[in-house]
Amino acid sequence: MENKNKLSLTSRIVIGMVAGIVLGAFFQWLLAGQEERMVPLFLFDLPIKAFFIDGLFHIGGQIFIASLQMLVVPLVFISLVCGTTSLSDASTLGRLGAKSVGLYLFTTAVAITLAITAALLIGPGHGVEMHSDASFSTAEAPGLAQVIINMFPRNPINAMAEGNMLQIIIFAVLFGIATAMSGKTGERIADLFQDLNTIVMKLVTILMNLAPYGVFCLMVRVFSTMGLDMFSSLAAYFFVVLGVLLLHGFMTYPLLLKLLTGLNPLIFLRKMRDAALFAFSTSSSNATIPVTLETVTKKLGVKNSIGSFTVPLGATINMDGTAIMQGVATVFIAQVFGVDLSLTDYLMVVLTATLASVGTAGVPGVGLIMLAMVLQQVGLPVEGIALIIGVDRLLDMTRTSVNITGDSMVSCVIAKSEKQLNEAVFNDPDAGRKEEESVDFKHLHNS
């Protein structure tokens, strides 16, 4: 009876998110342009911004994100080694890589094509007279040769310390292959990694039970500092990007899933709720890897040997959400500055953004660097990026949710094609739920 009456994880995360948004908006209303304001609490007068926004809730939110990031490198490395030891055939790994990268690039091309089409039809920049003294500068993206060189780690420990996903993936694959080829010694190491994988996944389960509190803190922080004045002037751009993101997430992915696998898209979307909420609150595909991998393997039925490869790879190179932002932003900036782009220019935008989704992987500020590359390619002023930065934080949260949904969809498609998808688990509405709710913190405390 107690378990039946217990709220699901999704419900608790939604409650935490809504409560955080309401409290954050209330704090913003209290401050109303003031630098600081005191509120009475028990025997003390506490400053809202210093104590609550920049103090209590900022600390809680950052601890939550740090906890997620803490698990990323060990989870990716251990899971990928476990998966590779069972897929030691080089042809199988090559086939997986080709399918995954090809499908990720295809969805990115579809995403930016949708974005450009929607922006041209709606014209969010028409009639907008915006003047900004702000300037934008970005680091230069590396060339293709350097990108390929940087994929291979000189020091795998340093790659793990820096969280360089491509280097970690390559080292883990090579380590897994060597383990599988090492006979009895390799079998003992493989068993050790399987045990480590079980422990790390249990850590993920514990963290998921703490998620509603972390999401609450993050939402308070975001919505207490987000001004509505800038949002109103960019409303057309904002809603075009948001609309295309939702269209891509709720139409493109389910349609591809149905066409390529025959699986029920509604079941897929329902099981993606928790991971999407995590991604929305963290704004980081890499930080959400533990939850995405848990969802893909425990709820969607993808074998770990597939999911441990496709999810980290997708978090690194799948930039569908960012590609949508780039497509709409390119049209918006062109319209604001009165620049007419030709069909060739738009085709160049599609090609550049699609290839750049792999080429700039692992570069800090990847979305803005990619947008700068696209704008330069078609002769638009890079300074135009400064016009849209104000509303980019909220859009970034939505983009991340779309990206990890794409990662999971591709994982299901690849697993189905490799006969590594447990459809009984995929169709089971309770798959993964029991494990999520198995952590009893009261029991842990008493023991």
Structure characteristics:
447 residues; mainly alpha; two-stranded antiparallel sheet; 22 helices; disordered C terminus
Strand order of the largest sheet: 1-2
Task: Name the structural class.
Answer: mainly alpha
Measured as a percent range, the helix fraction is: over 70%
Distance between the termini: 23 Å
Largest sheet: 2 strands, antiparallel
Order of helices and strands: HHEEHHHHHHHHHHHHHHHHHHHH
Mean pLDDT: 82
Which shape, going by the Cα principal axes? globular
Beta fraction of the residues?
Answer: under 5%
Number of strands: 2
Over the alpha carbons, how many angstroms does the gyration radius reach? 23 Å
Number of helices, counting only DSSP H or I runs of 4 residues or more: 22
Report what the structure shows.
Helix content is 75%, strand content 2%. With 447 residues, it is mostly helical. Strands 1-2 form a two-stranded antiparallel ribbon. The C terminus is likely disordered.
Would you summarize the structure shown here?
The protein has 447 residues and is an all-alpha fold. It contains 22 helices and two strands. The chain is globular, with a radius of gyration of 23 Å.
How is the topology of this model organized?
Elements: H1 2-5, H2 9-31, E1 38-41, E2 44-47, H3 48-85, H4 90-122, H5 144-150, H6 156-162, H7 165-180, H8 183-225, H9 228-233, H10 235-261, H11 265-271, H12 273-282, H13 289-299, H14 304-317, H15 320-336, H16 343-359, H17 366-377, H18 385-388, H19 392-417, H20 423-427, H21 433-436, H22 441-446
Antiparallel strand pairs: 1-2
